[in-house]
UniProtKB/TrEMBL annotation:
Organism expressing this protein natively: Dictyostelium discoideum
GO cellular component: plasma membrane
Family the UniProt entry places it in: Belongs to the amino acid-polyamine-organocation (APC) superfamily. Polyamine:cation symporter (PHS) (TC 2.A.3.12) family.
Protein name: Amino acid transporter
Protein keywords: Cell membrane, Membrane, Transmembrane, Transmembrane helix, Transport
């Protein structure tokens, strides 16, 4: 007779018990389309600076042709990998699937950093557009009106109020974020639709295409400015992957939704640019906010005010959607054991990752109080690293793991892999053409990221060593008990 001794072995570090509850699938197609639009675009605000790069013909061609090699591959990679993992976490979960926990942690931290820097921009932009609404009115110089830029506490109070309202919306649920985003996208696009309808009939395409030498002035184009603006204004498809566990009917909604976002984004850029180029032929004049001036020329002050309201709405939509997805990043890292468990806590009844939401919002509140231009300038460099790693992950899974279940396949042959890797051309150019001041700061950010991952690696090794030692002791004690109580 032997006495059986139950020996309960704990899991290795890096593995964690799955959560019994996750945010529910509540995001329908229209909500997903609206959230995706704000994650990728948020309207034509901010693309005006690309026109100053030179020839109107090359600017238009860039926004029509280059998305074929940037947006489409990146969007399709997002759709395929999101459906493959089918849970919240986006690129961090994809990295785990392809290369394990350390790539997952590194990619998750890079993605979170880029998102949090973006988040800190939007409350400030909201205040600027709010102030612009009073231009040309009796309240143009009022501290709570057009003169708000000179009143620090006025700006901060409104920025904090926006943050609080959006935090409450996010804690309410992703479904509500999607519904509100749909409303905001309609309000945002309405003044641009009006501007295009009123101005498109006046467009003389031939004359526009001849500005600054037209196609013959290739060398005169500031390609660095133009490409950076294009990539910046069409980035964010991968952020939709953070919500993969909350989208209804994902097999249908992800591919169609992402293609829909591409079409709306490019259309909402090219048509307003065409009208704007007709009303302002001097490309050197173009800068951020130029569409407001063009709206005044096309429709008068009322259209300019509508456009400023659209800018406010854009900032709110961008903030709430990016807060929603960046919180899922923290939630997923925590849920899989890479960050403290507190970040994966869900709000009772609403089932939203409220700790992750509040953490991101608190960091944003701190950032908008600080002169963080140096950090902001790293945004595109860090994001370029994220996209590069995402493409490598896709290639690795496609070539070495063809047996993984794929509800949706972007491509079916290896011959198309070079096309799917084409976003890396843009990311490498951005990194290579960045000023030295950005490059060395990027290297510092990479070093910090690797130090965090290395710390986790050595911590895991230490825990595993202690666990093996503990298991050996338990096995020895079990063997001693068996010998003691066994009946020969």
């Amino acid at each position: 007779m032997t006495v059986e001794i139950e020996n309960e072995h704990s899991k290795l570090v890096g593995e964690s018990e799955p959560q019994s509850n996750h945010p529910p699938r509540t995001i329908g197609f229209i909500s997903f389309l609206s959230i995706g639009y704000f994650l990728v675009s948020g309207g034509p605000f901010g693309i005006e600076g690309s026109v100053s790069a030179g020839s109107y013909a090359y600017v238009l061609l860039t926004y029509i042709v280059l998305p074929i090699f940037w947006c489409i591959p990146h969007g399709l990679i997002t759709a395929e990998l999101s459906l493959m993992v089918n849970k919240d976490g986006g690129c961090s979960v994809w990295g785990e699937k392809a290369f394990g926990e350390y790539v997952s942690l590194s990619l998750g931290l890079f993605s979170w950093f880029a998102a949090i820097v973006d988040l800190s921009l939007y409350p400030v932009l909201f205040v600027q557009y709010f102030s612009n609404c009073f231009n040309g009115t009796p309240y143009e110089n009022d501290l709570w009106g057009g003169g708000m830029e000179t009143c620090t506490h006025c700006r901060l109070l409104i920025a904090f109020a926006v943050i609080i309202l959006i935090v409450l919306m996010n804690c309410w649920g992703a479904e509500q974020v999607g519904i509100f985003s749909t409303i905001l996208s309609v309000i945002l696009l309405t003044p641009f639709i009006i501007m295009v309808v009123m101005g498109i009939g006046h467009v003389e395409l031939g004359e526009i295409l001849r500005v600054d030498g037209g196609l013959s002035n290739f060398k005169g184009v500031q390609w660095g400015v133009l490409l950076t603006n294009l990539v910046w204004s069409t980035s964010g498809f991968d952020a939709t992957g953070q919500l993969a566990g909350e989208v209804k009917n994902p097999k249908r909604n992800y591919p169609i939704g992402i293609i829909g976002v591409m079409i709306i984004t490019i259309t909402s850029y090219v048509l307003p640019l065409l009208v704007g180029m007709q009303y302002d032929r001097d490309y050197a004049n173009w800068q951020d906010g130029q569409f407001s001036i063009i709206a005044l020329k096309v429709g008068g002050q009322w259209l300019g005010i509508l456009l400023s309201i659209g800018g406010m709405v854009s900032s709110v939509g961008l903030f709430q959607c990016n807060l929603c997805t960046s919180a899922r990043n923290l939630y997923s890292l925590s849920d899989r054991g890479y960050l403290p468990k507190v970040f994966s806590k869900l709000l009772p009844r609403r089932e939203t990752p409220f700790v992750a939401i509040l953490t991101n919002a608190a960091i944003v509140c701190i950032l908008i109080l600080m002169p963080f231009q140096a950090i902001m300038s790293l945004d595109m460099s860090i994001y370029s690293i994220v996209v590069t790693l995402e493409v490598i992950i896709y290639i690795k899974l496609f070539v070495w793991n063809p047996d993984y279940d794929r509800p949706y396949k972007a491509i079916t042959t290896r011959w198309l892999l070079p096309y799917m890797a084409s976003p890396m051309i843009f990311t490498i150019l951005i990194l290579a053409l960045s000023p030295f001041s950005i490059q060395w700061k990027t290297l510092v950010a990479v070093a910090i990221n690797l130090a965090i991952v290395a710390t986790r690696y050595f911590h895991n090794k230490y825990k595993q060593k202690n666990q093996i030692k503990s298991n050996n002791i338990l096995d020895y004690e079990e063997e001693s008990l068996i010998k003691k109580y066994s009946i020969n």
